[in-house]
Structure prediction request, 90 residues.
Amino acid sequence: MVQFRFRAAQFRSGVVQFMSDVVQFRYRAVQFMSEVVQFPFRAAQFTSEVVQFRFRAAQFTSEVAQFLFEVAQFRFRAVQFTSEVVQFRF
Prediction:
C-alpha cells in the first residue's frame, strides 16, 4: 500500500510537471507569434531607415559637389585676379 501511494504521488508530480511544461510551451508559442507579427513592422522600419540613409548620402554627395564647384570658382577668380594684377603691373 505504501508503495502504491508513493507511485501515485510520483504520478501526480509527473502530471504537475507536464502541466507546467504545457504552460511554458504555450507562453513560448505566444511570444513566438508576437515576434512573427512584429517582424513585418520591424522590416518596414529597417527599410525606412535604409531609404533615409540613402537620401542623406545623396544630400551629402550633393553638398560635396557644391563645395567642389565653389572651390573651382574660387580658383578661377584667383587666376583672374592674378592675371589682372600682372596686367596692371605692365
User: Anything to note?
Assistant: Residues 2-89 form the longest helix (88 residues). The mean pLDDT is 94.
